[in-house]
Amino acid sequence: MTLFDSAKKQKIPFIPIRENQIRLYVCGPTVYDDAHLGHARSSIVFDLWRRLFLFLGFEVVFVKNFTDIDDKIIKKSLQSNISVQEVGSRYIHSYLADMDSLGVLRADIEPKATDNLPQMCEMIQTLLHKGYAYTGENSDVYLRIHKDKNYGALSQRLEQSHTQSRIQNAQDKLEHNDFALWKGYKGENDIAYDSPFGKGRPGWHIECSAMIERHLAYQNEEYGIDIHAGGADLLFPHHENEASQTRCATGREIAKYWLHNGFVNINGEKMSKSLGNSFFIKDALKVYDGEILRNYLLGVHYRLVLNFNEEDLLQSKKRLDKLYRLKKRVIESHIQSPHISREEIKHFAHTIKERARQAHESFLSSLIEALSDDYNISKALSIIEDMLSTSNEYLDKNPKDKAYKQAIKANLACIEFLLGLGGKCAQSYFQLGLDEKTKQEIESKLAQRQEAKMRKNYALADSIRNELKLQGIEIMDTPQGSVWEKI
Q1: Could you give the 3-state DSSP secondary structure of residue 254?
Q2: Taking a C-beta distance cutoff of 8 angstroms, is the pair 134, 174 a contact?
Q3: Cβ neighbours of residue 352 closer than 8 Å, sequence gap 6 or more
Q4: d(CA 85, CA 90)
Q5: Neighbours of 248 (CB within 10 A)
Q6: What residues are paired with 4 via a beta bridge?
Q7: pLDDT tens for each residue of 205-231
Q8: Phi then psi for 223, rounded to 5 degrees?
Q9: How far apart are CA 21 and CA 383, in angstroms?
Q10: Measured distance CA(186)–CA(180) in Å, rounded
Q11: pLDDT digit string (tens) for 142-179?
Q12: pTM of the predicted model, to two decimals?
């Protein structure tokens, strides 16, 4: 297996720290607003990597954090006249609901910054004791980056612009690029926690280092964890600063490999609230099913910029339609529940390995080879497309080949596990986009049509069919009865 390591700036072989084990940390959201498509893409990207590792037999511990202490959260609290805790809780719940809709598996551990304050204070004290950190005015604590000889090794950058900093340039810093480990209490429009340095709150970067040490890191290895991941916008300064403070505090590197996903652009601009073009997931879900969004967002290589537009989304849906057409043809093979719990993930992985034995060997080996090459999604999707076409061609000539159908079911089950696509009932998939009231009205008309046919009133039956067709509903008569789809 190979992956593109952001630190080495090249594709390199992946060798875990310990055989058959992977410890993976992904920077989660700052919970002050609803999640947008940038959050969706990042979550889907690392969900795909996790699924691949599980499929290959690795024992994966996956951690994704929530930043619930931040200037923007405090601002939202003041604007909404609710507590900081309520703001965090509201948007964590909203975020997880959106991720469920997108088929993103829940992390094994989902730590919050507010639950890890003692660990942050302990790491800051270590940095002070070792001489890497210093105190400024009003209980502020900073890291002296010039004392870390390897600072900049990850991002190849040393300068931090004002637009990249979450706090204004403080007057008590010894050097411009020193960054805050602890921010002293600023008054009634701030929030404060007790600490050995005085009342205040942690800086943004320290939380991830402390949570990794507490929940995930190996203590006696050259690296703390196997993979640290997140959006490309986090590479500098956030991940650079994380790497620095962990290196200074522990004497080892925080991660052996770094993975970063590309931005989502709308109208050619990086998605940003400041540009006024942010696209909330909750709004997208009002128009498109979560699986359709997932299918679109995973279709561009994870490191590339994804230029979001609805024409491409609808074009990519045709690929998903083909998958469900084949699934419907070979009779439903439903393995995954819509929302799989943490406890079920390992069982899910074990089940799919058993099913994989029945899959077409050439298809599965080619698919895994493509995905293992730095997650070459375009090649993987091409392999899936070929499998769908070949399977349909074979079934046209050999419609009763049960063994072949079993192999196709196994192929589809592997796709379902690896990509998170194809887990719905095929009939339900082709009825997406209609509310329950409309579905009931269609079913009522189908019953009327069936009654008309029983009375041999074929003119009325044809009239109902044509009426539904004008509404975008196609009726298919089968030996088991009539079924319908949204065209």
Answers
A1: strand
A2: yes
A3: 55, 335, 413, 414, 416, 417
A4: 9
A5: 23
A6: 11
A7: 999 999 999 999 999 999 999 999 999
A8: -125, 150
A9: 28
A10: 14
A11: 999 999 999 999 999 877 654 444 445 567 899 999 99
A12: 0.92
